[in-house]
Amino acid sequence: MIGLKAIALPLFAGLAAFAMNSDAQPPSPSAPGRLLTWPDLLGRARPSPSTTISYGADPLQVVDLWLPEGRGPHPTVLMVHGGCWQTEIADRTIMNWIADDLTRHGYAVWNIDYRGVDRGGGYPGTFEDAAAAADALRTNAARHRLDISRLVAIGHSAGGHLALWLAGRRRLPAGSPLRTANPLPIRSVISLGGLPDLEEAARSRNGCGNEVVIRLVGNALPGRRDPFTDTSVPRLAPLGVPQILINGMQDRIIPTTYAEGYARPMRAAGDDVRVRMIDATGHVELVAPETAAWAAAVEEIRRAWRR
Q1: What is the rounded CA–CA span in Å between residue 41 and residue 37?
Q2: Residue-level pLDDT at 307
Q3: How far is it, in rounded angstroms, from Cα 225 to Cα 219?
């Protein structure tokens, strides 16, 4: 087993430290051919959402709503941040730059936060938070003139897993404590460098490490012998919605094999799954608005809303 501290913390430590340093200066422009680093992104002026909405009592049980200009109704994107399912590594604000960019394209963004495994999450907390945050969109849609008729969910890294899981909630087994009546319908999902197959993530090398996946899904218990049955997305196949996986060919956190490794069995189950591998792209480019990877994501969002 590859430990979390051996892999994830060296890769992400700079992200958390830089985000908390209020005196950090914007970095110099990236040299041609150099992959972006987290300080390249986090050192920029950070745009702010239109409003923040609570869906629970915990400070992390909140959603940032980003609204474009105009009266609406606004086509809406549900956004889920990554960070290896750990609050210490990242929160919803890591998505601010792409959320702001989507408003410039005319979309509203429902950018959710949730408790990570290090803040009372794990099983079932992280999943319950993601579900409650998603369902709160339906509750708030009319008030903010949000069009959720063809709702697109997009998630980065660990958030890619959660975005796909949210789309598959109606497929949760009957005995699961995560199963709820009438989950918010999601019409398509975009995963940016995600880890949707938790069984694979628990046994193979990746930037989050194996141990955090085990903490996320919980232990096998007499009444729950298989902790992946209601947490790993392939177990919910077919999801019945289009899925697009956008990955960086030079991503050193999420192996490129993860995308097709997930897509093949999902296609075999009957799902429409496409993989887009973007060259000259690592993990950070997936959430930086000026990149080819993000341009591909915007293209897919537009395509989904034209359906």
Answers
A1: 7
A2: 73
A3: 8
Counting residues of the chain whose pLDDT is more than 70, the rounded percentage is: 89
Could you tell me the pLDDT band of residue 25, with boundaries at 50, 70 and 90?
very low
CB 87 within 8 A of CB 98: no
Burial, 192: exposed, middle or buried (Cβ in 10 Å; 0-12, 13-18, 19+)?
Answer: buried
Please answer whether residues 36 and 284 qualify as being in contact, where contact means their C-beta atoms are separated by less than 8 angstroms.
yes
Res. 128: pLDDT tops 50: yes
Q: What is the DSSP string of the chain?
A: ---HHHHHHHHHHHHHHHHH-TTPPPPPPPPTTPPP-HHHHHTSPPP--SEEEESSSSTTSEEEEE--SSS-PEEEEEEE--STT-TTT--GGGGHHHHHHHHHTT-EEEEE----TTTT-HHHHHHHHHHHHHHHHHHHTTTTTEEEEEEEEEEETHHHHHHHHHHTGGGS-TT-TT--SSPPP--EEEEES----HHHHHHS--TT-HHHHHHHH---BTTBS-TTTTTSGGGG----S-EEEEEETT-SSS-THHHHHHHHHHHHTT--EEEEEETT--SSGGG-TTSHHHHHHHHHHHHHHH-
pLDDT band at 31 (very low <50, low <70, confident <90, very high): low
Tokens representing 203 are: 């046994």
Cα separation, 3 vs 7, in Å, equals 7
pTM of the shown model: 0.91
Reported as a single tens digit per residue, the pLDDT across 203-251 is 999 999 999 999 999 987 767 889 999 999 999 999 999 999 999 999 9
Domains defined for the chain, CATH in brackets:
4-25+34-306 (3.40.50.1820)
